[in-house]
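Hi support team,

I've been running sequence recovery on a batch of backbones for a student project. Most finish fine, but this one hangs at about 90% for roughly twenty minutes before it completes. I'm not sure whether the input is malformed or the queue is just slow. I've pasted the structure tokens below so you can try to reproduce it. Let me know if you need the job ID as well.

Thanks,
M.K.
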């Protein structure tokens, strides 16, 4: 049985960010993450504009940003699903620790 500290760490809330090229691919990935129990909730924010260098060129793209809300213990599954279902050659995957109420963490665990 894991130590109490390890259990608390595994049940910590996180938000994973990933940007997709359009609403359709964002909706498809968001639904796959929730249906697959990798995330309790995925929020899509359309209309994001990203500016970045890619292969030596300055690019600007309209994207839909996904906020994937889950527990740290689910991160490996989230990452695997994003890599499998993402249309980009190099998908953005940013894991951010999130403070959350005990009630919200419980919902994330059972959502």
């Amino acid at each position: 049985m894991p130590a109490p500290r390890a259990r608390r760490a595994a049940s910590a809330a996180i938000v994973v960010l990933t940007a997709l090229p359009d609403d359709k691919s964002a909706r498809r990935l968001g639904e796959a993450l929730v249906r697959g129990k990798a995330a309790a909730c995925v929020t899509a924010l359309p209309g994001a504009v990203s500016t970045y260098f890619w292969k030596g060129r300055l690019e600007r793209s309209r994207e839909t940003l996904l906020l994937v809300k889950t527990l740290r213990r689910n991160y490996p599954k989230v990452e695997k699903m994003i890599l499998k279902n993402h249309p980009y050659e190099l998908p953005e995957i940013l894991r951010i620790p999130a403070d959350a109420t005990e009630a919200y963490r419980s919902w994330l665990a059972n959502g």
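--
Follow-up from support: It reproduced on our side and the slowdown came from queue contention, not your input. The chain has a mean pLDDT of 93. No action needed from you.
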